Amino acid sequence: MFYQVYPRSFADGNGDGVGDLDGVVARLDYLEMLGIDAIWLNPVTVSPMADHGYDVADPRDVDPLFGGMAALEQLIAAAHRRGIKIVMDVVPNHTSSAHPWFQAALAAGPGSAARERYIFRDGRGPGGHQPPNNWVSVFGGPAWSRVVEPDGAPGQWYLHLFDIEQPDLNWDNPEVFADFEKTLRFWLDRGVDGFRIDVAHGMAKPPGLPDMTSLDNRLLRDKDDDPRFNQPHVHAIHREIRRVIDDYPGAVTIGEVWVHDNARWAEYLRPDELHLAFNFRLAQAGFDAAEIGEAIENTLAAAAIVGAPPTWALANHDVGREVTRYGDGEVGLARARAMALVMLALPGAAFVYNGQELGLPDVQLPDEVLQDPTWERSGHTERGRDGCRVPLPWSGAAAPFGFSSSADTWLPMPPQWAALTVERQLSDPGSTLSFFRRALQLRRARAEFAGERVEWLAAPGDALIFRRGGLVCALNTGEPALRLPDRQLLLASAPVVDGRLPGNAAAWLV
Ligand code: GLC
């Protein structure tokens, strides 16, 4: 049971309106009460924050915005005292343009060893005015930017699959892995329990950098014929990473792997590569029994190819909040609660994104506060991911709801969240938070939550019923109430009357 902390938005310890690590330490009692096993921390390393930490300028130090190294050391110690593990985000595919390596590459000019750490190429066409190939950035616009050479002349182009401030590293250069190994050991030696590996299907680039054939570039969609990602030689990199990780028994790696084909996705989980990987099928499924059933089957089948544990997530800082995806308002929330029971019934590792346990929706933010680079790079056609990154409401009746002592939070918090604060929900046995607490407690304590196999039981077309170990989970995505199997009811996301489960609801039975 992983809990994803988006540090900017979880809790602000120093009153600057941005969440930080002291804020996380101050809220550890809350996480302990939820009964999580581990925290996955989105990047906290030194960064100009062009992509909120996924642009790393120093991978072996903590940004002062989050409280610096001392704050992380304190968090690790305090979390460990509570039996909670800490998983950090590492970003091997690219650095920040402010990283000393990139600055050196700019200064050193074409043909230099410093440029060999990144992917610099001459442009095409007269004067090299055209980018080296047609690749596009995941955030929109071309994936190449042209530099001005030290002598002032228009110069080479560098590759950035994400923002302009996120130049891609050249993983064919052994210096790149050597430095990444240093980073892994640096954090593991400081007690970190593992890593979420950003864009784990990136890093390796195809020889000759051939053009993309499809330029459909929706954010983080997995297209298996995309030359920018999932190149076969990426697996050699994962094997090297695993050799380092294996020096630290118990440490875990979790890859962000946007690969659609199950066989190719499972390659990342071979015994000498990653331990866990996201496959995102459940997060991509609509609230439809057939789609959800297929996503579950598919995820189980993919992990089973290599005998790895499956992973489950309904939301994260990129894909948005499920309450909104499922229709927003009361219906969206009811469906999100139902899906929480589905997810938590399944075998393997589950990930809860901070605020999910409060039933938070995405926030419709005004244009002028948007910060996600996607907004600018897409020419204001894609609003980006800020709506799912709004700070968490903890207490009180008005923003900033105990998140910060400053009213000027990095994204504005909607007044309606007064009804969704942790404080309010803890005192209400019918709240989403109370429901999550109960679900997590049962998942931890009850012997029925065991076994790797999922067995489908007969159900009408707009419902799913499956058995895992001694537990039966029923989901009703339709309108008519669903007659539940004749068993003892353990927990339901909505009131069960006369053995009937209403629509947009799920139940656990034993
Ligand atoms: C991953 C992260 C995302 C980030 C991107 C670039 O997809 O989850 O937030 O923008 O990588 O590092």
From TrEMBL:
SMART domains: Aamy
Keyword Glycoprotein part of the UniProt annotation: yes
InterPro entries the UniProt entry points to: GH (IPR017853), GH13_cat_dom (IPR006047), O16G_dom_2 (IPR045857)
GO terms classed as biological process: oligosaccharide catabolic process
Keyword field: Glycoprotein, Isomerase
UniProt signal peptide: none
Record GO terms (molecular function): alpha-amylase activity; isomerase activity
Domain named Glycosyl hydrolase family 13 catalytic: residues: 4-389
Domain of life: Bacteria
Family recorded in the similarity comment: Belongs to the glycosyl hydrolase 13 family.
Name of protein: Alpha-glucosidase AglA
Name of the encoding gene: aglA
